[in-house]
Description:
Elements: E1 2-11, H1 15-23, H2 28-31, E2 37-42, E3 54-60, E4 63-73, E5 77-84, E6 88-100, E7 103-114, H3 120-145
Amino acid sequence: MTFGFRVERATSAPPAGVYDLLADAAAWHEWVPFIGYSQLIRQGTPDPFGAGAIRRVGVFKGASVDEEIVEAQPAHYQRYRGVRGFPVSQYCGEICLNEVDAGTELVWSVTFEQRVPGTGRPLGPVIRAVITAMVDRTIKVAEQSA
C-alpha cells in the first residue's frame, strides 16, 4: 500500500535562495535544530549536489538515513529517494519551487510504502511532521538570508 502527502508553503524568499539551502544538505545540521548530523557522502556529477549525490542526515551519526538525489534542476526542482535507514520502503520525495510574484511557492511531496503491514498509517504523520518542520525552518532561514 502506498502512502503520501504534500506540504505547501509560500515565502518571500527567491527560489534560488530556498533551493541553495535545501541542496546543501551537508550544512543542514547548522540551521535545522532537530538535525544533529548531516553530510554529503557522495557527490553528484557534474553538480556536486545534483543527480547521483547521496546525503546522510539524522539526529546523530548512528541514527541517520541516506537519500540519493535522482534529479535536480537548480533553483526549481529536486527529486530524491531513500536508500538506507528508513522505516518504510520505496521512500521518494519531490521538491518543487515555483516562482510567484511575492517570492516562491514551495511544494514538498513524499510517497512511501509500508515495510511492515499496519505501520504505514502511524508512520505517515511522523514523516509528515518532520518534512513540515523542515519546510518551515527552510523558509525562515531563506527569508532571513534574503
